Every structure is written in structure tokens, then in C-alpha cells.
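Tutorial handout. Part one gives the primary structure; part two gives the three-dimensional structure as C-alpha cells.
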Amino acid sequence: MQETAGASWGILVAICFARFAFGYQMQTVASLGPDLVGLFGLSFAQLGSLVGAYMLPGIVAALACGFLAQRFGDRAVLATGMVLMTAGGAAAALAGGPGGIAAARILAGSGAVALTVMQGKVLADRFPGKLFLTTLGLMLAGFPVGIGAGQMTQAPLAHRYGWRTAFLAGAVPAGIGAVVLLASWRGDPRGSVRRLSWPSPAECRLVILAGLMWTFYNAAFSAFLTYVPTLLAVRGTPLWVADLVMDAATWGNVPALLLSGAAAARFGAGRVFLAGTAAALIAIVCIGLLGWPLLWGVVFGTIGAVQAGIIVGAGTLSARPGNRAVGMALFYTTYYIGGTVFPALCGRAADLVGDPSGALLCGAALSALAVPCWYLHRRWARRVPAG
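Part two.
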């Protein structure tokens, strides 16, 4: 059965709900950090482990999700991912201690892996041409909106209704996404043939290279969100200013992601990519070495995020349609491996410098590495037949 245009847009809405839940659930432990430390007597290392537990399944599960999608279909894997996110959020609310919270976050994180592996492939199958980057921007914007909503609501929810409520709130949008997905899905627009296959060596090189670009982009984003609050506190910046800086760095992503497709169509994907990467690099260096943090927070959150949809789009289209599930699994496996190494590398740089600015400079250097990856990707892509 072929899907109608309305069904395709319904699937996009479902993915947007799940992306919102992804960001909201990622943020929960960070928002509740002081409460959890006081309640369970956690060290900062243990608190950090609870934060990282959400991403832990990615290294192993991403590739498995690609093959499972080829065997059982996109719908089954995507819906299962949303159900796991729902179950994980509910399980965290019922947990009796840090161990239970960690296990629940691993469960929810496994669902988020399925979502991230499948989201671009599902949209590419339904929204071809220039519309793909537009819908990709809409989908990606759900993540920073979820993080921003978490920053605004989770601590007040915990203080008024208890810490469990904040975890439970993250399960709701994931559950809504699962319901909307199952109600909207009418069939595969490319047919129902399912076969186990591996992308060609050329396709593998392209998706891994695109995955490196995504990893370098996120290294800068992670360094900014992790170390800028500490840096501003060390400098004696008023708390309200620091809050504005972080709001600009997260909420500013939304218009950038929504406009990335139109900007790429108007000015060219390469120019938009370079402009966004340059803006992110300049902003993170300047906030590390100079003053005016709010200015650089705005630059980082808006212009410095405009290339995100272009990178994910390049990764999605690096493999032919029949190979995209495994292709995106390789893309995100690369990202998850880098995501476990680069935060520690940035932290080591901060230790060596003796100041949080060292981590920001390391994040900036990593973000710059996306540029040679972009040009190499474009060169190799010309040699791969279009699917």
C-alpha cells in the first residue's frame, strides 16, 4: 500500500515528537543534578555517568538497527525505538536509586539510537529533492527544542511534584510519537522488498566520512554546552547572563535548522556549510578568550548551527535507497564512537590549560576538521552512481 502525502507528513510529525523527547530525556539528569546529588549522595563522576548512560547503547546498537530495519522493515524499528524511549522514561520515574535510573536511561537511549538511525532514511524515502532538507531541518529542530524545554521545566517540576515527575514527563512525547507513527504509516513508498545487504565500499567511505563531519560538529556543540557555564562562573559572570548565553546556544538552533534547507537552496550547500562551521569556530574561540559572551552565544546558536541539516542530509544521501538503513547505521556508529572520545579529549585540554577555555579551544579545533572532510566527501561523491 502506497502512502498518501498526508500520511508522510504524519510520520514527520511523529518523528518530531520523538526528537523532542530525545532532547528532553537527554537533559533530565543535567537539570536534576543538584537534587540527585543531594538525594543519593552522588559524586560528580557518578552524576556524569548517569548523563552518559543515555548515549552508551549507541556504539553497539546503531549498526544492529540498520540490519534489523532491512530484515523487519523501517516501521518496526522506528516504532520500537519510540516505545523503548517511552518505557525508559517511565522506568526512570519508578527507579529506586541511581542504578535503576542508569538502567532506565540505557533502555531509553537504545530507543533513541533506533530513532536517529532511521529518521533521515525514512524522510529521504518520502520527501525527495529540495523538500528533503526542509523536512530534515524541521525534524532536527525537535532536539534543541526538547533540551530547551527541559532546561525550563524539569527543575520546577521536580521541586513541585518530585524528581520522578521530570523523568515521567520525558516519556509522554515519545509515547505520542509512537501513536502518531502507527496511525500514519500506510506502507513503504519504495516497496516492501526486504533483503540483507551491505553498502558498497564507496558508499561506506562516504557515510563514514559524513559521520566524522557530524562528530566534529557535535564535539564543538558539546564542548560549548558543557564548559561555557563553568567558564562564565569562573569569570564571575552574573547567573542571569550565563542563562541567557545558554538559552541562545540552544534555542537559537531552532530558526537555524528550520532555515537551513532554504539557505542551501539559495546559496548552495557548500557555502552554507562553510559559513556555519566558521561561525561556530569563531564563536567558541572568542567566548573562550574574549568577553561579550551573549554575542558569541547568539552567533554559536544561530549561524553556527545552520550546517547541521546539511551534514545529516549528506550522510543520508551517501548510500543508495536500498542501502540507507545500514548506511545511516554506519554514520551514527561513527558518531557514537567519536562522542565517547572527544568529550574526554576536551576535558583533558582543560586540565592541561588549567581553565575551561582549554576545552573550548579543543572543541573549536575539532570543529575545523569538518571542513577537509566536507571537501573530501564531495570529491568522492562524484565517483558514486546516484541511487
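Part three, for discussion. The chain has a mean pLDDT of 83. The chain has two domains: 1-186, 197-387.
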